[in-house]
Amino acid sequence: MAKSKNNAKKVSCISVPSQKINSLSSSSLHYLFFSPKKPSANRFFGLKWYRSSRFWVLALFLCGFPGMLKLWYTPDPSVPFSPDPCVTSQSQLQESFSNRHTRQQLGLVSNDERNGKNDQEVGSVNARELKFEVGFGSNEVKNESLKGAVDFQGRISGGVEEDSEFWKQPDGLGFKPCLKFSGEYSKESELILEDRRKYLLVVVSGGMNQQRNQIVDAVVIARILGAALVVPILQVNVIWGDESEFSDIFDLENFKRVLANDVRIVSSLPSNHVTRRPVVENRTPLHVSPHWIRARYLKRLNREGVLLLRGLDSRLSKDLPSDLQKLRCKVAFHALRFVPPVVELGNKLAERMQRKGPYIALHLRMELDVWVRTGCHPGLNHEYDEIINQERRQRPELLTAKSNMTCHERKLAGLCPLSPLEVARLLKALGAPKSARIYWAGGQPLGGKEALLPLTREFPHFYNKEDLASAGELKPFANKASLMAAIDYLVSEKSDVFMPSHGGNMGHAIQGHRAYAGHKKYITPNKRHMLRYFLNSSLPEAEFNGVMKELHRDSLGQPELRTSKAGRDVTKYPVPECMCRDEHDDRSHE
């Protein structure tokens, strides 16, 4: 029996090669599977036994049987969901994803495949079908690996109906932005804005979205202390080497104008404060209250006139008085607007995505630093795993938390980013049509675009900013990771559906922004509870889809009260402090 060159074509059943079966007559096949009632002993041992067709069919079957047993009982190494999700080879996963037998195990078999259609009948598209649909510039797909990946164009979407239900937006329950500050807050503002003695300097670190969070906190701390805020200093990013300043990313004039009645913003220290030795604080505890801040800094700030704070990430409590929560929303959703060139390009790319209808935005966390920080493996191969392990050994401080957990334990606990195959399965289960256009945000994945093949095969209309924009449009932002992240942010925020493959500052910021904009659909993957269903290869597709929809029924961007759970950030959950319902809305009385 000839071995197939593609290991992924092995099937777990006893079979006879099709070329042999085609050469047999119907009577021979009958004798192969149904023995005669009483075989004649004399005839069997007679001189002409070798002329019997039944003998040769039986001999052929017996000769091939050991080989077929070997195929039957040899574990298929290409099954992507092994008991240990951290050791999956991406190349094996890639092969198995397109194999009908493996797809059936994963619950990804299309209706055509169930009806026994030949693989060639549901095959690939020609070169002209691999062009963009957004009507601009050079339309051809730029990356050759993606061209090869778009080979499922003509196939039904894995048994999931391509209806409009997926694009349906959650019920916002009538909540709308409302930032009405108290009378006491307004009175305090007059005194704060007149003060010329106290100044707050802050140095913010991390990526663009992490810096945004710290700037929000810096404004609130300045308000608590009654100090003027000097435009925040952005520390050079250790990962990307981005030296962008505040005014390179954010519209400084808008920042000052929006906060003019809350905190005085100055571009630099006045001359009579430059020579003063500031009070320096590098280790502010986590989640401190306004009372702690005043008790710790106010007396020294009044004496010295300048306070310098570093490392503000998560230092300010998330549970603040109502007026300060509203101030946080005002900074995050109104004051921190990107510079006009970034807004212009971000809006332009969003319009290109929208020309053919709704689109999904995915924030894929697959960069090297993400795998290093999370303590997880991408499931590509041992070479990439070793690159990650080596980086962790050299920089152990990058591993964020729970360093005693293995990769497998982290995966099962829902602490690892979703893989491209898991993203594809989840989207399909939730009803995303195969024709859906997807914008993916994020840095280049470890393993290149080939690592995305399981996702691009299922959703071929798959673009990022490099695909949508011309080289000339992106040139002003080259080597500026923060500005590139800002473009991703804008296109993602304007999408009809957004889903992150992992938590993080960008996902949290967009969740809050979409809620504040009217609770636009935002899918929060329930990784901790859904992973065991991904590992169950015997689960029928319809049942898998039903389980996924049930698990995510309340995770689609519906309004959630921040106060229902302690420690929630109001810029992620703006209800009820920053959003309220119209008194005339019937739903406000439910």
TrEMBL record:
A GO biological-process term: fucose metabolic process
InterPro entries for this protein: FucosylTrfase_pln (IPR024709), GDP-Fuc_O-FucTrfase (IPR019378)
Subcellular location per the Swiss-Prot or TrEMBL entry: Membrane
Coiled coil: none
Record keywords: Carbohydrate metabolism, Fucose metabolism, Glycoprotein, Glycosyltransferase, Membrane, Signal-anchor, Transferase, Transmembrane, Transmembrane helix
GO molecular function: glycosyltransferase activity
Chief site of localization: membrane
Membrane topology classification: Single-pass type II membrane protein
Protein name: O-fucosyltransferase family protein
Lineage, top ranks: Eukaryota, Viridiplantae, Streptophyta, Embryophyta, Tracheophyta
